[in-house]
Amino acid sequence: MSLIRNGSGRLIQNRAGNPGNFECVVAIWVPNYPGPPKGPYLTHYYRDNGNGENWVAGEIIDSDAASSGSLIQSTFGSNPTRGVLETLVLEGASIIHYFETSSGFLQGGSFSTTAVGSPSFIQGNLGQAGSNGNFEAVVLEEGGLWHYWRDNSSAPLGGTTGGPYPWTRTDLISSAATGPGTIIQSNLGTGPGNFEVLVPETDGNIRHHWRDNSTTPYKWNQGEIVGPGYGQPGLIQNVNGNLEAVVLQNTGSPQATLRHYYRESSDFSKWLSDPVNDVITTIATGSGSLIQSTYNDNPPTTGGNLEVVVMEYHPDARGLGSKLTHYWQDRSQNPYTWKASTQVVPQVSSSFSFFPPLGLCRYPILERDILLPEGRIPFRLLCLTHLENKMILCRAMANWRRQVCCGLRCLEFSSTGLRNRGFNV
Q1: What fold does the segment set 5-354 form as a domain?
Q2: pTM of the model
Q3: In this predicted model, what pLDDT tens digit does every residue of 342-352 receive, in sequence order?
Q4: N or C terminus: fewer CB in 10 A for the chain?
């Protein structure tokens, strides 16, 4: 059994190679000063772990992304070990599927028409015996966090001529969701193992939900509070059976704290954090993605380092810009401490840099001018939050199109209207 523990965020470790490469998808903005930045472009990066451990920019997967992507390595293809890199990404109000081929990433279909947040997906072990396991996704839509699945044993739409496999929406996981959720499949429970989900909710906390996959009809259950937080959490089950999470927390400053939590396999009643070494970064401008790699897996079977990528505030001379930064924690040496490694993506413009501190839209009513770096005030924004457990409601006045971020939620508007894009980098 592979010791790699990939989550369902933007970062994975490839199964092929020793050690396998790190693979990452990130939505980046290209500077276009004095105008607004261009993008975001969903871009593939990888770290060649067999040759210098340098991060290399790959291809642009999607030029109209409204979120960072969720990346997996599926069992499709002629070589199950190598598999296929596959990603889901928010475009407008739909979730778009892309998969890797020898000639680049191709679009493989879409689902949902009311999505407002970054998706998260896995390839689980449910499905017809002898076939590729089903894809399982959680999607933030108007009204809450929903579970979707794709039957990978069925014929693609279009039959033998190819075409996308159909996706099916099943259950509402949380009607109180205020941000995107994250899904994994654990080895807890009997049979195939439970689905585990973390999601931010209206009480300002990250909540755990789970589904027992050993009995039908399947039912989602509400679990424990992880801790205060918002944005899309990172989640894995480590080799020893503990659940591990990374969570964004508002500190009242323009940047956020990314904090590490864990739940021991011997006690499901509470999530814990190390009071000394739980903070990964205090300058986060986006959610973190978490995996457990094979690095420092000594002795074998104990599991290797925890690896995290997170967008951080690293301003240029104009006070703009963020970088995606890689952190790691050596699990072979106690006490466990988080160490910064390298910046995955060089200086790029982040939408967060233009606008007020994270958490602007967390207050009941707030009206304020949005000041651009050169001093112009292009619009006035009025935000109402969590009204009857609804999504963020905002109205803005402007005669040209631009985006504004409230917390980690991005809104796109023009003089004719405003819609929630649920943008998360």
Answers
A1: Neuraminidase (2.120.10)
A2: 0.81
A3: 778 754 433 32
A4: N
